[in-house]
Design goal:
alpha/beta; 14% strand; 300 residues
Length: 300
């Protein structure tokens, strides 16, 4: 049903800026994330892309799916390139243009972390968005420090899966005492949209960590993308929350009924080798981390 009353209740901007014809795989969570971001930030936006899936998804020159100015940069320099663009625009008096660094987890958690830390320490007025598909998907599904414990990748095969936990990026950025950092999931668009709008109106450094499944790298059917992105929140594996000024924590979604981690893990081929004892280990770790996060929320 489409009517004035129904349409007035919609919270997601209606203008479509991202165009069709991009080169993303079927079910790509990163393309959903980009679509939502552009709806909020609009056409007065400039982007920096390091080497990542989106440097391919956008299309070959002179074509572009994002429909806004875009600067392709080296793997480790998305943040500093965005800072430079921001400084240049400010020098020209163009304060109304949004500058966003957009990168995958490899170029953020690993290769680009030093430039991000520098931009955060200086409190540069940019937004950094990491679309997290938990591996280097563009170059062959290699493990990154965002890859979760127990996951298969081409560099952590079934007989030697990832043996270290996922790096806690939000806590690293929050430690810089930046104005705003948050997590989001493409399965909760209203929450993601609110966080984007909030970041848009904050002066200084902001970072949003958005969970964006990759059916190709996760060995799952493409029609499960949104379901998996919802289950990761409902299981509490990936809580969605925000931190202001490095100290004020707010939990944005508290599941009324916790879903066992197995319901999330069993949908993905990258976890097919796990046993019941592994599910138990992951479940216990999730519950520990959830309790730890809630203590921060209650404290502040």
């Amino acid at each position: 049903m489409v009517g004035g009353e129904i349409m007035s209740k919609l919270t997601i901007p209606q203008e479509e800026i991202m165009s069709s014809g991009h080169l993303g795989c079927q079910g790509c969570g990163a393309t959903i994330a980009m679509r939502y971001m552009l709806k909020v930030f609009g056409r007065k936006t400039m982007l920096t892309f390091p080497a990542c899936c989106w440097s391919v998804i956008d299309g070959p020159w002179p074509y572009s799916a994002v429909s806004v100015p875009l600067f392709h940069t080296a793997f480790e320099t998305a943040a500093i390139a965005a800072s430079g663009i921001r400084s240049g625009l400010d020098a020209l008096g163009k304060k109304d243009i949004n500058v966003i660094a957009w990168a995958g987890d490899g170029g953020t958690f690993d290769i680009g972390i030093q430039a991000i830390s520098g931009a955060a320490e200086r409190n540069d007025n940019i937004l950094y968005i990491v679309y997290d598909n938990e591996a280097y998907m563009n170059t062959g599904i290699q493990r990154s420090s965002a890859t979760p414990w127990g996951a298969w990748t081409t560099t952590t095969p079934v007989n030697n899966p990832k043996s270290r936990p996922k790096k806690d990026l939000v806590e690293i950025i929050a430690a810089h005492r930046v104005p705003y950092t948050a997590t989001a999931s493409i399965a909760y668009p209203e929450d993601f949209i609110k966080k984007l709008e909030k970041a848009k109106n904050i002066e200084g450094f902001k970072l949003i960590h958005v969970f964006a499944p990759c059916p190709t790298g996760w060995k799952m059917p493409p029609d499960l993308t949104v379901k998996v992105a919802r289950l990761v929140v409902q299981t509490r594996i990936f809580p969605i929350y925000e931190v202001e000024n490095g100290v004020s924590y707010k939990l944005n979604f508290n599941p009324k009924k916790f879903v066992p981690v197995g319901e999330y893990l069993k949908l993905q081929g990258r976890f097919r080798h796990l046993k019941e004892k592994d599910y138990k280990f992951i479940q216990e770790n999730v519950e520990y981390e959830w309790e730890f996060l809630n203590k921060k929320v209650e404290t502040f």
